[in-house]
Amino acid sequence: MSGSRITFLEGQAGQGAALARIADRVRSQLASPERAALRAARRPLFTGIGASYAALAVPVQQLRKAGVVTQRVLSSEIETGTAGFDTDCLIAVSQGGRSRETIAACRSAAAPGITRTALLNVLPSRLGELADLTVGLGNEPDSHASTIGYTGTVVALDLIAGAIAGRTQDPWDDIAEQTAAVHRRAAEVVAGLRERGARCIASDAVAAGASCASAEEGALLLREVVRMTAAASATRNYLHGEMESAGNTLHLVFGDGREIELARSLAGSGHLTLLLTTARVEPADSLSVIRLPEVPDAVRVVLETVVLQELVARLSAERGVPIESFVFAHDDTKWPDPRAAAGNARPPAPVAPCRP
C-alpha cells in the first residue's frame, strides 16, 4: 500500500506534475476492456462524503449537460441501499478507500444490474475490495488536508464523465502549466488580503454549476486548515437572504454571471471579497480579483482549487494555525489505516491553539 503523507506545501508544489500523471493513468484505465461496464453506464449515481462529495458536483453537471440522467448523494444517505434511485452504476469516491459511510454504501448497492465502481487514490483498500471495478489515481502521496488527492479526484471524475458521455478528447494535456500559472497569480493576490482575511470571523463561498464543487471545498478547507467558520451556497440561493448576515466576513465568489454583481455589491458594502472569474473585472476597495483562463468546467474547478489552497495556506500562517493539525479525532469515520500500524504513515502534527 502506498499513498504516503506529504505536507500541504509539498502537495501544492508538486500538484501540477502529479495531475498530469493522474490524467495519463486514468485515461489508460478507462480505455481498457475491463471498464466497459463503466463506459456503458446510462444512469450513474455518484456518492461520497466530505471533500469527495464536493468533487461530485463536477461530473454531475457535465453529464446532465450531455443529457445523461445522474445525481450525487451523500454516502450516509444510501448506507442501507439504493432503493429509490434508478441507477445502473454506483460510482463511489474515497481517496483512501477507508470512509466508513462510502464503504457501507458500496456494500449495500450489491444488486443485479448495478455495477459498483470505486474511484480511489490508495489501492489496495477496503472500498476497492468491495467494488466490481476500480479506477485508481496511482497511490499519489497526499497531504492530511488534501491537495493532490482532491484535485486528482476532480481530474479523474472529468475523465469518467467524458467516457460515459462518449467524449473523444479531454482538456488535461497542459494542466501542469496552467496550475503553475494560476498558483503564481494567486500568491500575488492573496498576499494583499491575507492580513485582513485572517481577522475575519467567518467566510461564505458562493458559486453556480460545476464551481459549486469549489465553493464546498473552499468552505471545508477554511474549516479544516484555517479553523474559520465557513459555509458554501449556490449563487441564486445566496441572493435569497443568506447574504444578509455579512459582517467581518470573507467572501469567496466564483463565476462570470450574476456572481460579478454579487461580488461588487459585497465589496461596495465594505466586506472583504475575492472574486474568481474569467471576466475582465477591475479590483476595488475590499474587492480582489483573480482572472482565470477560459477553460472547460472541470479544469476551471481544479484552478479554482489551486487558488483556495494558496489562500488557506497563507491565512493559516497569518493566524498561527499549523496546517497539518486537526482539532478533533474520530474513530467512527474511517477504517483503520494499515500503514499507521506499520509505522509508514506520517501522523498529524500536534494541535496548536488559534491566535485571537
Features:
356 residues, alpha/beta, five-stranded parallel sheet
Describe it for me?
The structure is a single chain. The protein has about 350 residues and is of the alpha/beta class. It has 13 helices and 10 strands. The chain has helices at about 10-30, 35-40, 50-55, 55-65, 100-110, 125-130, 150-165, 175-200, 210-225, 235-240, 260-270, 295-320, 340; strands at about 45-50, 70-75, 90-95, 115-120, 135, 200-205, 230-235, 250-255, 270-275, 285-290. A 5-stranded parallel beta sheet has the order 2-1-3-4-5, sandwiched between helices. Helix 1 packs parallel to helix 7 (about 150-165), helix 4 packs parallel to helix 7 and helix 7 (about 150-165) packs antiparallel against helix 12. The N and C termini lie far apart (about 40 Å).
Name the poorly predicted regions: 341-356
- How many helices? The count is 13
From the N-terminal CA to the C-terminal CA, the straight-line distance is 41 Å
Radius of gyration: 20 Å
Overall structural class, as computed from helix and strand content, comes to: alpha/beta
Largest β sheet strand count, sense and barrel closure = 5 strands, parallel
Average residue-wise pLDDT: 93
The total count of strands amounts to 10
- Assign an overall shape: globular
* Percent range for β-strand residues: 5-15%
In helices, the fraction of residues equals 40-55%
Q: Could you give the order of strands across the largest sheet?
A: 2-1-3-4-5
Oligomeric state: single chain
Q: Sketch the topology as an H/E string, one letter per element.
A: HHEHHEEHEHEHHEHEHEHEEHH
